[in-house]
Design brief:
Blueprint lengths: L1 H19 L4 E6 L4 E4 L1 H7 L3 H4 L4 H4 L4 H13 L3 E9 L5 E12 L4 E10 H48 L3 H25 L8 E3 L1 H15 L5 E5 L7 E3 L1 H21 L10 E14 L2 E13 L6 H4 L17 H11 L3 E7 L2 E9 L3
Parallel strand pairs: 7-9
Antiparallel strand pairs: 1-2, 1-5, 3-4, 4-5, 6-8, 9-10, 10-12, 11-12
Helix pairs in contact: 6-7, 8-9, 9-11
Length: 367
């Protein structure tokens, strides 16, 4: 008898361990369609903790989603497994994702006692495919730009050197102005080419707190636009440190933030009359894949603004160098962002609609 109880306890612990480490979100509802259990993948997908979800009705777990409601109520009546593909699910946070939804009844003596729901985040699979495609394009673009940089900088160096020699020979200050313009423009073009090709210097990697970078950028934005933009912060102070270059990551946050501020100031009417607002938030993201590496937990840093959004015709190429929607822009800000994040073995992506643009940066923790 003791042996059977011991084996049952082992089986129970093994099942719990397997469910907790699944990539698929698993939810358990009782016969009243209230949530009684959820695994960590489910918490991550629904963007809410077990404490907030347990005991809630299916209508609150899946708000404004008729398909999920119909599946669960049908199972109570018909006692059969139902699977639906590519359902658009609106989360409690308001975010809409694409999922595969499978529900299986657990039958009691006379009726369904519980329902096991498995949810696969299809957007995540699509994101991984898109990430691979973007990485290939990024590497190809970098090779082309480095080749162009080499071909352009050689004649620029000769041009600058000739202008310096000519400047030393000239005595007329008016003529010297022309040679100095040539030297200045040659230096500017050389710097532009270097920025296009990306930095060659290695990162100064140390254990850092990402909130130090965010607070530094918040201070800079507040100093430059004290009454034009408000900044809200939602930090998770319990997050561990990451291995990164503090100056480089500060540049990443600053580039994205400045783009957001300029967009809000250029089109204030796009935010429905609301004050221009920038929001910095941090939180952990569980079981997240970057490249070919599955991380148990990574840092998620979101930079959100309520500006006009990124034009649809620019969204597919927004990280390419020299792509910009601003007449005076260089189009290098987000290219530099992607380069630095890639050097940190991280990922940057965004969603953008009118009134809400969110850039999300995912970085592995130091340990």
């Amino acid at each position: 008898m003791a042996s059977s109880q011991y084996n049952a306890r082992i089986d129970s612990n093994l099942c719990r361990h397997l469910v907790e480490n699944m990539d698929t979100a698993v939810l358990l509802f009782d016969s009243n369609l209230k949530l009684v259990a959820i695994n960590p993948a489910g918490e991550n997908l629904l963007q809410a903790s077990t404490r907030k979800l347990i005991g809630k009705s299916y209508k609150l777990i899946f708000p404004q989603n008729r398909e999920c409601h119909d599946i669960l109520t049908t199972i109570l009546k018909e006692n059969r497994t139902i699977t639906e593909r590519e359902i658009r699910l609106q989360l409690i946070t308001g975010q809409i994702i694409t999922i595969d939804f499978s529900a299986t009844p657990v039958s009691g003596v006379e009726q369904v006692s519980e329902i096991i729901v498995e949810i696969t985040h299809v957007d995540r699979l699509l994101r991984l495919a898109r990430e691979d495609h973007l990485q290939e394009q990024y590497e190809a673009t970098r090779k082309i730009l480095r080749g162009i940089a080499h071909e352009v900088k050689n004649p620029l160096g000769g041009l600058r050197g000739a202008a310096q020699l000519l400047d030393m020979e000239l005595e007329d200050e008016t003529q010297k102005e022309y040679t100095r313009v040539i030297i200045k423009e040659a230096d500017r073009l050389s710097g532009l080419v270097d920025a296009m090709a990306g930095p060659n210097t290695p990162l100064d990697l140390q254990s850092i707190n990402i909130h130090a970078c965010l607070e530094h950028v918040r201070t800079l934005i507040n100093a430059e636009y004290p009454e034009l933009v408000s900044i809200r912060t939602h930090y998770d102070p319990s997050l561990p440190e990451i291995l990164g270059d503090q100056d480089a990551l500060t540049q990443v946050i600053l580039n994205i933030s400045q783009n957001a501020v300029h967009a809000m100031l250029d089109a204030p009417a796009a935010s429905s009359g609301e004050p221009n607002c920038l929001c910095f938030s941090t939180r952990p993201a569980g079981r997240f894949t970057i490249g070919n590496v599955l991380h148990r937990t990574v840092l998620q840093l979101d930079i959100e603004d309520n500006g006009p959004g990124i034009p649809e015709d620019l969204q597919a190429t927004v990280f390419y160098p020299l792509i910009t929607g601003k007449p005076e822009g260089t189009g290098l800000g987000l290219s530099i962002v992607q380069n630095i994040v890639n050097q940190h073995h991280g990922l940057v992506e965004f969603t953008s609609v009118k009134g809400k643009t969110v850039f999300s940066i995912f970085l592995p923790f130091a340990n």
